[in-house]
Amino acid sequence: MKKKVFVFFPDGVGLRNFAFTDFKSIGEKMGFDITYWNNTVFSLENNLGFNEVKIENHTAHKLLPIYTRARKRAELNVSRDKFNDEVYPTYKFPFRYDGLKNSVRSLYAKWLIGLYSSEKGIVKLRKRIHTLERSTSKYKYCKAQLETHKPDLVFCTTQRATQSISALLAAKDLGILTAAFVYSWDNVPKAMQVVETDYYFVWSDLMKSEVLKYYPFIKEEQVFVTGTPQFEPHYDKSLAQSRTEFFKAHDLDENKKYICYSGDDETTSPLDQFYLEDLANAVRSLNTKGYNLGIIYRKCPVDFTPRYNDVIEANKDVIKVLDPIWKQVGANWNQVLPAKEDFKMLYNVCEHSEFVTNVCSSTVFDFVAHNKPCIYYNYEQPQLKKGIRDIGQNYKYVHFRSMPSDKAAIFCTDKKDLEGLIKQILDGKLSSVEEGLKWYEIIVGKTPTEASEKVWKAITSIL
């Protein structure tokens, strides 16, 4: 009899990894009965023909946002003290005091943080969160769905969504095995683990060591190193277009060499548009010296600000906008959902660009998978003023300490150096690919093409 697995989407971030890749077909070939347990607005049945059970009740406890924020800050406080490292407070978002409601929430959260900023306190906070979520109608609703469908295991596609807590508690209370995928390369040190499951799937040995370091209640045998399906499409040759075909499809000039500027979200890089402007100025200067260059601007999929518009308009002769193929289906960042067609676009942007430039983005790994280097901007903009976040703190984060050397990306630490760095790359005198591939292996693991299969093998082992 086939084992039944619920692949659980508490929000849309897991769609790219677990709905649009070959993840489902690999699982079915291995003999699993797969149902998608869907808490998103994206219909997997209507759009992809997948068997799904929709979660229509989205009621979380009204105190959940306060408690989860307190839990995150308490964990960061413990990490700061335990590891004697001031990087952890930089992961905190400021409290809001605009209006009575926000003021009360912030003060309540601060009281909880003061009370529970210890390892024992965090355990108590997590238990309190579980009590709150077990009292919701969503918990009862999800429990009834599980009792009807009786899966052998619930696989949660991200560890960071509060919408998953009540559903996973319902599964655990019914004796159904649960596993969660750690979604992103920087999530573990940032205290982004919202859920507690029986098992955890991580990208790499590094991420496994981090999970065990930050969460001492998790045992080594609970953590499986699987890789991530996120990078599998970069090895799918069926997505490849010829240079002529790709350039024609996106109205690019085949006589030009293009540099990709990969945009960032406003929180990470609030002055991001000015780095794009710096690149445009460097490209213009090089074009007067015999080069024929253009820029492909690919925005951050969850950035809908107009902040780049003036720079793009002023430089439309050198900047070509290729928006990622994502669809906004709600107001929140996690309701901007990828379309499957974006795999093809990203593959060919990487393949047909000379290199990528950005502020600390993980696109360094997308491009190095195509043997292309990356320039990271690491200098202040003159527009920086009090209240605007300096991008320099990004490179001090724990996940950047995984770099095997400072040559795994090319750091531009002064605007005046940008043109020279671009020239050296184009002339074949400078590259970050060799060290970048070492970093890629540390972060993504040794077998980036086998992640989906390894997840199913881990589920087989668990069951």
Descriptive notes:
This protein is of the alpha/beta class and 463 residues long. It has 3 domains: 4-60 and 136-227 and 448-462, Glycogen Phosphorylase B (Rossmann fold, 3-Layer(aba) Sandwich), CATH 3.40.50.2000; 64-131, no CATH class; 234-444, Rossmann fold. It is built from 17 helices and 15 strands. The strands form 3 sheets. The chain has a 7-stranded parallel beta sheet, with helices on both faces. It has a 6-stranded parallel beta sheet with strand order 10-9-8-13-14-15. Strands 11-12 form a two-stranded antiparallel sheet. α8 (165-173) links the parallel β4 and β5. α7 crosses α8. The longest helix has 20 residues, at 64-83. It starts with a strand and ends with a helix. The model has no long low-confidence stretch (mean pLDDT 95).
Key features of this structure:
14% strand; alpha/beta; 463 residues; UDP-glycosyltransferase; Rossmann fold; seven-stranded parallel beta sheet; TagF_C; 3 domains
Given the structure, what is the number of helices? 17
Report the average pLDDT across residues: 95
Report the CATH superfamily of the largest domain: Glycogen Phosphorylase B
Total domain count: 3
Radius of gyration from CA coordinates: 23 Å
**How many β-strands, per DSSP?**
15
Fraction of residues in H or I helices? 25-40%
> Low-confidence parts, pLDDT < 50 over ≥5 residues?
none
What is the CATH topology assignment of the largest domain? Answer: Rossmann fold
Q: What is the CATH architecture assignment of the largest domain?
A: 3-Layer(aba) Sandwich
Largest sheet, strands/sense/barrel: 7 strands, parallel
The strand line-up of the biggest sheet is: 3-2-1-4-5-6-7
Characterize the overall form.
globular
Euclidean distance between termini CA atoms: 13 Å
